[in-house]
Design a protein that fits this description.
The complex is a heterodimer.
Chain A: H1 20-33, E1 41-45, E2 60-63, H2 69-79, E3 84-90, H3 91-97, H4 99-108, E4 113-118, E5 121-122, E6 128-129, H5 153-159, E7 164-169, H6 173-185, E8 190-195, H7 207-213, E9 215-216, H8 228-237, E10 242-248, H9 255-258, H10 276-283
Parallel strand pairs in A: 1-2, 1-3, 3-4, 4-8, 7-8, 9-10
Antiparallel strand pairs in A: 5-6, 7-10
Chain B: E1 4-12, H1 17-31, E2 34-40, E3 49-57, E4 68-73, H2 76-82, E5 86-95, E6 108-113, H3 115-122, H4 128-140, H5 144-154, H6 160-175, H7 179-182, E7 197-200, H8 202-212, E8 217-220, H9 227-240, E9 243-246, H10 250-263, E10 267-271, H11 273-289, E11 293-301, E12 307-311, H12 316-320, E13 330-332, H13 337-354, E14 357-363, H14 364-368, E15 371-374, H15 391-395, E16 428-430, H16 444-456, H17 459-462, E17 467-470, E18 476-480, H18 484-492, E19 499-504, E20 506-508, H19 512-521, E21 524-529, H20 535-544, E22 550-554, H21 563-576
Parallel strand pairs in B: 1-4, 4-5, 5-6, 8-9, 8-10, 10-11, 11-14, 13-14, 18-19, 18-21, 21-22
Antiparallel strand pairs in B: 1-3, 2-3, 7-15, 11-12, 13-20, 17-19
Helix pairs in contact in B: 1-4, 1-5, 3-4, 3-6, 4-6, 5-6, 8-9, 8-13, 10-11, 18-21
The chains are: A alpha/beta, B alpha/beta.
Chain lengths: ~290, ~575
């Protein structure tokens, strides 16, 4: 399988140079490397520039509403656990309007992957502050510069008990492909946060800014990916500006395990008429 | 003439008033009586007054009566709040420890009973409900064995010791000689009955209907008065390979259902007013993406948190005009336990056939009032999944040159669906306006075609009847739905009122053709509903373009319509119209 097998050939409507092109390619390359049959993959997205991603995949795709990619993706995966489900969205989706869903998806640990394209600004609404914008960022709603404290996605996710957390950078494609492929292979909820620069509305967190400020986990001595303290430490020490696999707990039970779903056929296979035996079982308590 | 006898059991919330009521209902139903129980509770777990009104009859009881024959009081408030509803010569049975205010204006027989004492002496203080059942059961003429088996059944899960103690308390109370009670007339003989009966409430019937329809996924957030549905599914699904997810909020609940419905499993959620408000976003998404889902809206007093534990029917307007923009939506309105069951089954077929959200609207009293009905027979649900991608499409997947046209324009607006996993069915879905492949499109010509396609899907339903009449040679028609229907039935029963009565089981799309016919047949249509503005009447006037012949009968104080009240109102309409 090749990258092109996962592309439907539609030209993305992103600005030339947008970090999201690289994320789209990385998802396609990761899917190709894992040879996922296209009809068995569903890409779910939210709203914003990033939300268009599902529409460029030659897989099943569901472009949902703002902030709701995770509830939708969980519904799909729980209905048919034989599918590979990947949700994708932006920082507004994941850390503002859908922040509650992000925490609960982490907590449930449904076996799916969530890729957040973080450009630290609202691009599609044409330049508004985001919950991860750095203090000082001037946008149309923060003309004097943002004064609010940004959410730190890594601390949030690791603190909430995520079982796979990685950070990538659009300009480091090779690493990003491998982080997404490993995330898909991980049994449980995996979150990949990608620094995906907006070249139009964020003149602070640019490609060159990230090149200067990002470090890589390989440069951190003695980081243990299965150790919460180690993960929190490197996130704190780098102010979150680090790429690579931050935290991984490979053997945690998934939601599907805990609810016994893996012992049954997928729910989608249950569309048969209910039997008289079932009817008697269900109605027994009501008979006088 | 049929007879009715009504008992109110009241006490402090959390002390077993409801279980006393249910126990009594089971015992009476076991003897062949028909019963209907209405619960009155407040939004707290312990403390505060709560009561249950049980009406007993010799034929199908469709609501509780307005006038009470016996009050069984565990606390003083049950007496002070409710004695106004007691009939002349009515009876108050109360715990001997109570000292009610002496404001008894009517002719009332008060009997103080050692409910607490008996419980303490033969079991424990907690068992005063059981001693009450002993006295009440004897007074009503229920055999001891019937009460024993009802008690044993109730405490089955609590172990032998608890059962034995409760039985001792029951016998002590039952055998306690009490001359005052012996003066009271027992119930008339139970009707002779061949058919087997069930006792259940609307929420039970809805859960049962969903199970029979093949629903195997539910996502919901707890809310009164809808939670019973998710509780039932949590209990039943694990054995059936289904799944109930308690989500972080109602937005997640409906969105998860959409995901599961899109993936191919029949899915549902259940909520009430505040949750419904949050679900508007999801209704629009399901409508736009043509994804089948079933939503139960058990209505309660609104707006905002409103009256969480009181009945109302005030979501008609919100749902009739649901969401921003325009999309297909079906609203079903059951009026009986049987309809809760049947219409929920039908809701899943309609959702699949028309590829749109379907809301089953009940109200608190219909959802939560247990009543006896003839037992449901096993009838395999005819599952209709609507138009799906054909086998040829699937087989020709290999040589496909263009993607599957999930939103192909068709004459009836219905386009075949494919599910993720089907080769050859790959397509995009979006909440944006889209073309036949599900790709975003803002072209005016496409927009118009797609809007028309989605909104013409439900046209055939407009010609299908949804008003069920009980004709009595009336010049007027009183039309209602939900728990009000049972009150209306009882209000006209055994009277000479020249009013036909009807219940409507689908309000969107409205059965327009049938309603036009009814407007031609009747001098007036009185719409009976539980909200302030007469929402259903407003919708009917607007849609049928009739101003004068559609009038409203409303109640919105959190109480259900009362039989006497409705009878008087109808008498008023009749005399005015002579």
């Amino acid at each position: 399988m090749e990258m092109k097998d996962y592309s439907n050939g539609i030209k993305p409507n992103w600005c030339p140079g947008c970090g999201d092109f690289s994320v789209l390619r990385a998802i396609q390359l990761a899917a190709a490397s894992l040879e996922i049959p296209q009809e068995r993959m569903v890409v779910v997205s939210g709203i914003g520039c990033s939300g268009r991603l599902s529409g460029y995949m030659n897989t099943y795709g569901f472009h949902s509403v703002h902030g709701r990619s995770l509830p939708l993706a969980q519904g799909i995966k729980l209905a048919n656990r034989e599918l590979t489900v990947l949700a994708a969205g932006g920082d507004g989706d994941g850390f503002a309007i859908g922040a509650g869903h992000t925490l609960h998806a982490i907590r449930r640990n449904v076996d799916l992957t969530y890729v957040v394209m973080n450009n630290q600004v609202y691009g599609l609404t044409k330049g508004h502050v985001s919950p991860v914008s750095l203090p000082g960022l001037k946008t149309k709603t923060t003309p004097a510069g943002s004064v609010d404290q940004p959410i730190q996605p890594g601390l949030l996710a690791v603190g909430a008990g995520v079982t796979y957390y990685a950070q990538g950078f659009s300009a480091q494609q090779e690493e990003l492909v491998s982080l997404i492929a490993e995330a898909i292979k991980h049994k449980g909820f995996s979150l990949v946060q990608v620094f995906s620069p907006c070249i139009t509305y964020n003149k602070t967190n640019t490609y060159s800014w990230f090149r200067e400020n990002l470090t890589n986990v390989s440069e951190v001595p003695a980081h243990q990916t299965d150790n919460v303290d180690s993960a929190l430490r490197i996130l704190r020490e780098t102010d979150g500006l680090i790429t690579g696999l931050i935290y991984h707990q490979p053997d945690q039970p998934t939601f599907e395990d805990r609810h016994g779903l893996n012992q049954h056929d997928p729910l989608t296979s249950k569309m048969t008429e209910s039997t008289e035996e079932q009817f008697s079982r269900w109605t027994k308590r009501f008979f006088i | 003439m049929s007879w009715r006898r009504t008992i109110l059991i009241g006490g402090v919330q959390g002390e077993g008033v409801a279980s006393t009521g249910i126990n009594l209902m089971r015992a009476l139903a076991g003897l062949g009586y028909h019963v209907y129980g209405e619960r009155k509770f407040s939004s707290r777990i312990k403390g505060g007054n709560t009561h249950m009104i049980i009406t007993i009859g010799d034929d199908h009881v469709t609501c509780v009566e307005s006038v009470i024959d016996i009050i069984l009081a565990f606390d003083e408030e049950s007496i002070s709040f409710n004695q106004i509803k007691l009939r002349d010569n009515g009876i108050i049975l109360m715990d001997e420890t109570l000292t009610p205010e002496a404001s008894l204006t009517q002719n009332i027989n008060t009997v103080a009973l050692p409910l607490t004492l008996m419980a303490k002496k033969h079991g424990s203080l907690l068992m005063k409900n059981t001693s009450a059942i002993g006295y009440l059961g004897k007074l009503l003429g229920i055999q001891r064995q019937v009460l024993e088996s009802s008690i044993a059944k109730t405490y089955l899960s609590k172990g032998d010791e608890v059962i034995q103690q409760n039985l001792q308390v029951l016998l002590a109370a039952y055998d306690d000689p009490c001359p005052e009670l012996e003066k009271i007339d027992p119930l008339p003989d139970a009707p002779h009955r061949q058919e087997s009966m069930m006792i259940l409430m609307g929420n039970d019937a809805i859960a049962l209907g969903a199970l029979m329809a093949g629903c195997r996924f539910m996502a919901a957030y707890p809310i009164t008065p809808a939670s019973d549905v998710m509780e039932t599914m949590s209990r039943v699904f694990p054995d059936e390979g289904g799944l109930m997810v308690q989500t972080e909020d109602e937005v997640a609940a409906i969105t998860m259902c959409i995901g599961a419905g899109y993936a191919g499993v029949r899915s549902m959620t259940a909520t009430s007013g505040p949750g419904l408000t949050l679900m508007m976003e999801g209704l629009g998404l399901a409508g736009m993406t043509e994804t089948p889902i079933v939503v139960v809206d058990a209505q309660r007093g609104g707006p905002s948190t409103g009256l969480p534990t009181r009945t109302e029917q005030s979501d008609f307007s919100a749902l009739y005009h649901a969401g921003h923009g325009e999309f297909p939506l079906i609203l079903l309105t059951p009026s009986t336990i049987e309809e809760c069951y049947e219409l929920t089954k039908e809701a899943f077929n309609l959702a699949d056939i028309f590829q749109c959200p379907v809301v089953v609207m009940t109200d608190l009293n219909l959802s939560l009032s247990p009543q006896t009905i003839p037992a449901f027979d096993y009838v395999p649900a005819a599952i209709n999944r609507g138009v799906l991608m054909s086998l040829e499409d699937e087989l020709s997947a290999a040589k496909i040159t263009e993607p599957f046209a999930r939103y192909a324009l068709t004459e009836n607006g219905l386009s075949p669906r494919s599910f993720p996993g089907m080769p050859g069915g790959i397509h995009q879905v979006t909440g944006l306006e889209h073309n036949k492949w599900g790709r975003p499109s803002d072209q005016p010509a496409n927009r118009q075609k797609m809007m028309d396609k989605r909104l013409r899907k439900l046209e055939p339903l407009k010609d299908q009847s949804a008003v069920h009449l009980e004709q009595r040679d009336g010049k007027m028609l009183c039309l209602t739905c939900g728990s009000s229907w049972g009150v209306l039935q009882q209000a006209v029963k055994d009277t000479y009122l020249s009013v036909d009565i009807g219940r409507i089981s689908r309000i969107r799309p409205l059965p327009k053709r049938q309603l036009q016919q009814l407007l031609a047949n009747y001098e007036k249509i009185i719409v009976m509903e539980q909200n302030q503005q007469g929402q259903l009447a407003l919708i009917l006037r607007q849609e049928l373009n009739h101003q004068n012949n559609i009038v409203s009968m409303t109640r919105y104080d959190g109480e259900s319509f009362q039989v006497q009240e409705v009878r008087h109102l109808l008498e008023g309409w009749c005399s005015e119209w002579k």
